[in-house]
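Re: the 303-residue chain
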Amino acid sequence: MSAPTPTVSPDLKVLMRKLRLGQLLDTLPERLALAKSHNLAHVEFLEQLFADEVTRRDGDSAGRRAKAARLDPHMVLEAWDDEATITYDRAVWSELVSMRFVDQARNAFILGPVGVGKTFMATALGHIACRRRISVHFERADKLHKRLKAARLDASFDVEMRKLIGVELLIIDDFALTALDATETADIYELCVERHHIGATVLTSNRDPSEWLAVMADPLLAQAAVDRLKSAAWELIIEGESYRQHEKPTIGEEPTDPRSPRPRRRRFLTPSAGRRDHHVSRLKWTRGGPMLLATGWSHGTGK
C-alpha cells in the first residue's frame, strides 16, 4: 500500500503566500513525497522546490515580455512544422537562433516569396529573445507607418521613436511590401541611422534588398538607410511551397484552431552538420558586418 501524500498545514500556506511563494503549493505535496521516498537532504529538497519556482517565473516573465512585444504566441520555434517543403541555409538560421547577432547589434533579412514562413521565423526569433530577457518589439511595416503618422498628430512622435530606437531587437514584418511616401521614408531613415551599431533589426520582405530603393520616395534617404541596414546584415533566403498550405482543412479532420501548433518532430535547434539547403558562394564582410551572398538556389539538395 502506497504512503499517503503529505499534506501542507494551513500555517505553512499562509507563510508561503506572504512570501509570494503561493504557486509552489501546487507541487509541494508531490515534492514532499518525492523527498521522503528518495531520502533527500533538506538542502536538496529546497533546491528542487526553488528550481520549480524559478522555472515557473521565467516562463511567466517570458510570456509577459512576448505579449508586450506583440509577438504571436503560436509562432514559437517548437511549433514549426518540419514537414514544410521549404529550403533555406540552416547554418545561417542556427547563427540567428544563437542570438549573437543581437549581442553584436547586427541585422537580419528574412527574404522569400509569399507564405514560406518568413513571419513565423522572425516571430520565433522574437520569442527566443524574450526568453533571454532581451527587449523586443514586433510590428508589421504598414501598421508601424500608420502609427507613427498618428503620433505626429498628438505630439507623441518623439516618444514613440525613442522607444523604437531603444529596443534591443526590432522586428519589422513585410518591409517595403508597398511604396513608402516621403514621410515613411524619412522615418525609416531615422530609425536606421539611430539604431546603426546600437540595436539589432530583423526585416522580413518579399522583395530583394536591391528593390527596396525603388519603393522609397526619397532616393538619398533611401540609399543612406538601406546602406546602413545591409552593411551589418545576415540574409536568410527561404524558397519553397507556401507554409500556409499546412493550415488548410481536410475531409474527416477534427475542427481545430488554425493558429494552434501541430505536433511535429523538431529539428531547428540541431541543424545537420555541414548540410546546406542552398549553395552558398561566400560570406562577405562589408563595413564590419556579415552579408551572405548566395547563388544556385535549389530545393533540398544544396547542389
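The CA atoms of residues 110 and 204 lie 5 Å apart.
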